[in-house]
C-alpha cells in the first residue's frame, strides 16, 4: 500500500538571500512554518515514501502469484445497493482514506483502508492458538524476517464471532485459490497462513478464515454478507497500518471483498473520496450496486486481465496541458509493453513513468515560470504562492485523455497541491521506465468513480461526495 517521515527543515524568519541573475529562478522560502503546516508536509512526505515502496511492490506482483481459480458465486441481485462511509485520513497524519466495516457475528466495527490495489481483506485479530499459528507463518517467511506486533486501537476478537471459520492449509481453497498463501502445512487441520507483502518493510501476517460482514442499505436496514475470505492478522509491519485496523480489498480477483459484494449487488461498485485535507466529520462513500446519484457520465475501458490482478488498468490515450496534447510515447500507456495506467485508491500522489513525467512537469512548470520557485524536499516543483505574481498567474489545465474520447479534468488542487500555507507543489512523482503509471487518490478526490465489472468500464463524474450532490 501507499505508505519515513523525513525531518522537516526549520525555516527562519523572513529573510531573502541574493541570487545571481544568471542562476535559476529557484528561491528558498525563509519563514516559520506553523505546526499544522508542518504536519501537512510531513504527511505528504510519508505518503510519497510509501508510494515509492508501493510502486516497487506493484512492479513485482504482476505475474509472480499463482493463478487463482474462479469460485462459484450466487446470481447477482440488483434490487438493492449497500453503502459505507469513507473518511480522509488527514486527521491521523496519513495519505490514506478509511472506510467503516462491521465484521463477525455479533458485528464488531473497524476502520479499514479501502484499497483497489489489494486482494486481501484483513483485520488486526486475536484468536486462540495465535502463538502456534504465527510460528507456522514464521517458518514460511523468506529471509528469516522477524514480525512485529502492531499496536491497534481495535482488535477483532475472532473467538467471539459465531461466523468465524478458519480455512485449513489442506483445503483446495488454500492450495489453489489463494495465490499469496504460504505453502507451510504442518498437519491437515492447520490453518492456511499468509505473509502478505505490500512493499519492502510493509507486510501483514496471519491466517485465512471465512467470515461475514454486516452491511447497510441507504434506508439503514442491515443484512449479513456471507462467504467472505478474511485475513486474521496478528502481526503487521509498516507505517501504513498505524492509523487503521486493516485493509478492505477492493482489487479485482476471485476472493476479494469486491468479488463477493458485486456478486450479490450487481457487477459494479463506486466510491467518492472527499478532499484529502477534509476534516474528520466530512465523509464520502463506498457503494456496491447501482449508484442512484450518478447521472449519465463519461467512461473509459477497464482492462480486467486475470494476469494483472488485483489491479484495475484503464486505457489511457494521452495527457494534455493547457489544451495541448503532449507527445508522450504510446508505449507508456501500453501494459503489454511494460507501461499502462492503474487507478489506485491506496496511492496518494499520481505517478507517471519517466517519459510522461518529464513532459508533464515541464509543460506545467513552463506556464508557472513567473511564480517564484521554492525548495521543499522531496517535491521537484514547488512555488511561493503568497507571491503577488502567483495571483496574476493562470494555472494551466491538466487533462487525462482515455481511449474512446472520455477526459478527466481534475480541479487545480488535485495536481497543484497545498503542502503548507503559501506553498504549492506539482503533485506528481516519477517511476523509471518501463514502469506502471498510477492515478492516485488525490487526483481522484471529489469525483464519483464507478467500476462496472460486467461491461469493463470505468465511469467518473465530479462531485463533492455529499449524497446526491454533483458538481457541474
Automatic annotation (TrEMBL):
State a single Pfam family of this protein: TAXi_N
Question: What range(s) does the Peptidase A1 domain occupy?
Answer: 97-461
ATP-binding in keyword set: no
UniProt xrefs under PROSITE patterns: ASP_PROTEASE, PEPTIDASE_A1
Active-site residues from the entry? 115, 344
Q: Which residues does UniProt assign to the signal peptide?
A: 1-21
Q: Which family does it belong to?
A: Belongs to the peptidase A1 family.
The answer on whether this UniProt entry bears the keyword Transferase reads: no
Could you tell me the Gene Ontology terms of the biological process aspect for this record? proteolysis
| GO molecular function terms listed in the Swiss-Prot or TrEMBL record | aspartic-type endopeptidase activity
Alphabetized InterPro entries for the sequence? Aspartic_peptidase_A1, Aspartic_peptidase_AS, Pepsin-like_plant, PEPTIDASE_A1, Peptidase_aspartic_dom_sf, Plant_Aspart_Prot_A1, TAXi_C, TAXi_N
Keywords, in A-Z order? Aspartyl protease, Glycoprotein, Hydrolase, Protease, Signal
Write the lineage as a comma-separated list: Eukaryota, Viridiplantae, Streptophyta, Embryophyta, Tracheophyta
This protein's source sits in the domain of life called Eukaryota
Q: Any idea what this protein is called? A: Peptidase A1 domain-containing protein
Extract the Gene3D superfamilies matched here: Acid Proteases (2.40.70.10)
